[in-house]
């Protein structure tokens, strides 16, 4: 709440601060918060995993056996790098040719070629889901990897060095969008958004290839994708503003989105209702109930495994921070935003490859 009050006290904050039902403490700004600003862009109100998001693929499959679920996940773990692992060869993406002129982007570009198509760690995952529409879905949750982290930290440091109007303890220094530094950050952030989307698409295509090799089903009937942790110039309440969504999805009227649960709880394909009070936004997930440190302090393997009953995954490796009990209840979170989104398809996890 203190972080939300700090946001509201920013001299460039517009109208009000919106908090989504999955809100919890973050760095500077709460995760699950939406800040609209006048003329100022705030790197720490975007976050470090710029463009983190989800892509979901509705396949033609109607069922899948436990044996095939196990096979898909185990094969995926051999093909898709997780944690701090990168590819041994540079990956191809046409977007690399249009990288913006930014010192930190130039510094990280070569490394990024090896990061493309890697899952990362923490709450990132690939999953096989059974939909309430009787179809098997594939889902990938990942972001801009180390590239986004480096860009975020670089420009947050720059903003703090130039800051004269935001109390230092807020950790919410901004850059004028019409300044050279502000335009440069916006271009670098936008590049990270594109990189994150390309990263998910490459992971999803390889995940689908593995799924097809095991099941024989390769037709995709629908693709839904959404991202959070970004800033965009939009019009709200009749004025042009910069909307920062840190752990929040866009939910324009009719816009399809995904609200993922934890590794062991349902996710939802949703349709935005375009609620102006939320700046046409919704939650990006179910939100943490306890911090990663707290989860590892109080949870053990037995408790964590119990919360994953009936779902195939390959173990915790001593880290229980992503156990479903560390998260809020997705059904409650969804009910608390019935004025923001309409649920369309409920997805129940069958198998998960954890980052």
Commentary on this structure:
- The strands form four sheets. The protein has a seven-stranded antiparallel sheet with strand order 8-4-6-5-15-13-12. The protein has a four-stranded antiparallel sheet with strand order 1-2-10-9, with helices on one face.
- The longest helix is centred in the middle third of the chain and has 36 residues, at 180-215.
- Helix 2 crosses helix 5.
- It has 355 residues and is an alpha+beta fold.
- The protein has one domain: tRNA-splicing ligase RtcB (Alpha-Beta Complex), CATH 3.90.1860.
- The protein has helices at residues 2-8, 66-79, 103-115, 145-162, 180-215, 292-298, 301-306, 330-335, and strands spanning 18-24, 31-37, 40-41, 53-59, 125-131, 136-142, 175-176, 220-227, 230-236, 239-246, 248-250, 256-259, 267-272, 281-283, 341-354.
Radius of gyration: 20 Å
Gross geometry:
globular
Helicity level: 25-40%
**Category from helices, strands and their pairing:** alpha+beta
- What series of H and E elements makes up the topology? HEEEEHHEEHEHEEEEEEEHHHE
Task: Offer a quick outline of the entry.
The chain has 355 residues and is an alpha+beta fold. It has one domain (2-354): Alpha-Beta Complex (tRNA-splicing ligase RtcB), CATH 3.90.1860.10. The chain has helices at residues 2-8, 66-79, 103-115, 145-162, 180-215, 292-298, 301-306, 330-335; strands spanning 18-24, 31-37, 40-41, 53-59, 125-131, 136-142, 175-176, 220-227, 230-236, 239-246, 248-250, 256-259, 267-272, 281-283, 341-354.
């Amino acid at each position: 709440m203190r972080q939300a009050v700090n946001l509201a006290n920013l001299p460039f904050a517009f109208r009000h601060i919106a908090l989504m039902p999955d809100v919890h403490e973050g760095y500077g700004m709460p995760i699950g918060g939406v800040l609209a600003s006048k003329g100022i862009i705030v790197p720490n109100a975007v976050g470090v995993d710029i463009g983190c998001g989800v892509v979901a693929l509705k396949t033609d499959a109607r069922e899948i056996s436990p044996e095939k679920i196990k096979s898909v996940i185990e094969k995926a773990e051999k093909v898709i790098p997780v944690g701090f692992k990168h590819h041994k060869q540079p990956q191809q993406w046409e977007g690399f040719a249009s990288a913006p002129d930014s010192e930190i982007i130039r510094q990280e570009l070569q490394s990024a070629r090896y990061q493309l198509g890697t899952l990362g760690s923490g709450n990132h995952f690939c999953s096989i889901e059974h939909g309430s529409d009787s179809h098997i879905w594939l889902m990938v949750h990942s972001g801009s990897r180390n590239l986004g982290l480096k860009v975020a930290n670089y420009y947050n440091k720059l903003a703090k060095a130039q800051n004269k109007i935001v109390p230092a303890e807020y950790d919410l220094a901004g850059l004028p969008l019409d300044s050279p530094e502000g335009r440069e950050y916006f271009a670098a952030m936008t590049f990270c958004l594109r990189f994150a989307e390309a990263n998910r698409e490459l992971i999803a295509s390889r995940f689908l290839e593995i799924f097809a090799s095991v099941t024989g089903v390769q037709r995709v009937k629908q693709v839904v994708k959404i991202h959070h942790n970004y800033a965009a110039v939009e019009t709200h309440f009749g004025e042009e503003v910069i909307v920062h969504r840190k752990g929040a999805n866009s939910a324009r009227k009719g816009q399809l989105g995904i609200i993922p649960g934890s590794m062991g709880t349902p996710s939802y394909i949703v349709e935005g209702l375009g609620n102006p009070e939320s700046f046409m936004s919704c939650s990006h997930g179910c939100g943490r109930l306890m911090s990663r440190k707290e989860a590892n302090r109080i949870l053990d393997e037995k408790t964590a495994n119990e919360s994953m009953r009936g779902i195939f995954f390959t173990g915790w490796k001593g880290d229980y921070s992503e156990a479903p009990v560390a998260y809020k209840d997705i059904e409650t979170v969804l009910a608390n935003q019935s004025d923001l989104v309409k649920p369309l398809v409920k997805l129940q996890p069958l198998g998960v490859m954890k980052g």
